[in-house]
């Protein structure tokens, strides 16, 4: 069986498998795969060559529409059909990815701007965000319930069924980590560590650049131990990913932990009054205006970094939960 035939069989089995009862789907899918591969092998032996796509399609057509095949084994009934469920899941993730950063931003804004009744303001902020999120999720769910019913009705018509309608098999979540992403993250951590340790000043002296007449405020020195520890741990994590690319669970879990540890450092920085000051000046000169703008840029950058940390933490935990459901790395022959 060539790769084209195997890909079509994989997609066909996957389309049936996700409609089957959870406790039986593995056994039924394995049985169907064996029957299909047996037919394909038999046809290829008779023809003395690999089958073309049209011939594989004819075999799958004889087996029947995926929904009908699954119905013979007692397919599950869904509020949101499996044909639209991946799209529904993505829509929910988009809502959550939008709401989580907004929530963090509003909470940070409440902490930074509140002069009194902080706890009460935080509760009001969280209640407002929760209400908006539940309304949006309810609207999305109702829309996909309707779309799922409409899609189910269309797929019951054999004339509408085509192999192009078969879903793609999801990528293996246990696949090795991409080296380009790991190297990019490693370079970012190293540059951030060099900046925090002041190595950029050494580069300025090396190239003969003049230092700006501003100084960093004490808040940076107060957080040096915590920040350097997190950055070094991040470098170790990326190196581990490069050396052991199949340690997916360890990589994701350590990333989520580092994001959680980085948030208090970022929050402490956001609560600071200033990040830079004019060296020996009063702040009324043009350099004072520059320092003000520099402080504003750093504040915005810290907010963005906080949102990214929350987003990365949610993404790593979500993927970790998904990967943890798979007890071993899937082999090419076990794709169902």
Briefly summarize what is shown.
This protein is mainly alpha-helical and 336 residues long. It has helices spanning 3-17, 25-47, 53-63, 66-72, 85-113, 118-155, 179-196, 199-207, 218-222, 224-243, 248-270, 286-324; strands spanning 214-216, 276-278. The chain has three domains: 3-77, no CATH class; 85-165; 179-330, no CATH class.
Structural write-up:
- There is one protein chain.
- The protein is mainly α.
- It has three domains: about 5-75, no CATH class; about 85-165; about 180-330, no CATH class.
- About 70% of the residues lie in helices and about 0% in strands.
- The chain has helices at about 5-15, 25-45, 55-65, 65-70, 85-115, 120-155, 180-195, 200-205, 220, 225-245, 250-270, 285-325; strands at about 215, 275-280.
- Helix 1 (about 5-15) packs across helix 4 (about 65-70), helix 5 (about 85-115) runs antiparallel to helix 12 and helix 10 runs antiparallel to helix 11 (about 250-270).
- The longest helix is centred in the C-terminal third of the chain and has 39 residues, at about 285-325.
- It is elongated.
Q: Strand order within the widest sheet?
A: 1-2
Q: Please tell me the total number of domains.
A: 3
User: DSSP helix count?
Assistant: 12
- The succession of helices and strands, N to C, reads HHHHHHHHEHHHEH
What share of the residues lie within helices? over 70%
State the distance separating the first and last CA atoms. Answer: 16 Å
The biggest sheet, with number of strands, parallel, antiparallel or mixed sense and barrel status, is: 2 strands, antiparallel
According to DSSP, the number of beta strands is 2
The best one-word shape is elongated
Low-confidence stretches: 153-159, 327-336
Beta percentage is under 5%
Helix/strand class:
mainly alpha
Radius of gyration: 28 Å
* Average predicted local confidence, pLDDT: 76
């Amino acid at each position: 069986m060539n790769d084209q035939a195997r890909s079509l069989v994989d997609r066909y089995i996957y389309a049936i498998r996700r409609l089957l009862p959870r406790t039986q789907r593995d056994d039924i899918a394995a049985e169907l795969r064996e029957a299909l591969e047996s037919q394909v092998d038999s046809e290829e032996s008779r023809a003395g060559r690999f089958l073309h796509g049209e011939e594989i399609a004819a075999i799958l057509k004889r087996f029947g529409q995926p929904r009908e095949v699954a119905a013979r084994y007692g397919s599950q009934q869904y509020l949101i059909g499996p044909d639209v469920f991946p799209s529904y899941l993505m829509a929910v993730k988009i809502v959550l990815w939008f709401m989580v950063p907004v929530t963090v931003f509003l909470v940070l804004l409440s902490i930074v701007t509140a002069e009194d009744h902080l706890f009460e303001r935080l509760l009001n902020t969280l209640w407002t965000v929760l209400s908006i999120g539940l309304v949006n999720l309810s609207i999305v769910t109702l829309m996909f319930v309707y779309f799922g019913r409409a899609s189910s009705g269309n797929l019951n018509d054999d004339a509408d069924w085509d192999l192009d309608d078969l879903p793609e098999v999801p990528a293996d979540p246990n696949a090795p980590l991409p080296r380009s992403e790991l190297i990019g993250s490693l370079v970012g951590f190293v540059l951030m560590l060099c900046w925090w340790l002041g190595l950029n000043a050494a580069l300025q002296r090396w190239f003969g650049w003049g230092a700006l007449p501003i100084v960093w405020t004490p808040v940076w020195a107060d957080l040096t131990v915590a920040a350097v520890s997190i950055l070094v741990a991040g470098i170790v994590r990326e190196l581990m990913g490069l050396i052991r690319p199949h340690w997916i669970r360890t990589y994701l879990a350590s990333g989520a932990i580092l994001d959680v540890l980085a948030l208090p450092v970022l929050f402490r920085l956001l609560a600071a009054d200033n990040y830079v000051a004019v060296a020996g000046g009063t702040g009324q000169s043009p350099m004072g205006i520059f320092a003000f703008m520099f402080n504003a840029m750093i504040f915005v950058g810290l907010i963005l970094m906080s949102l990214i940390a929350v987003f990365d933490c949610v993404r790593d935990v979500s993927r970790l939960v998904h990967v943890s459901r798979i007890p071993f790395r899937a082999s090419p022959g076990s794709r169902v």
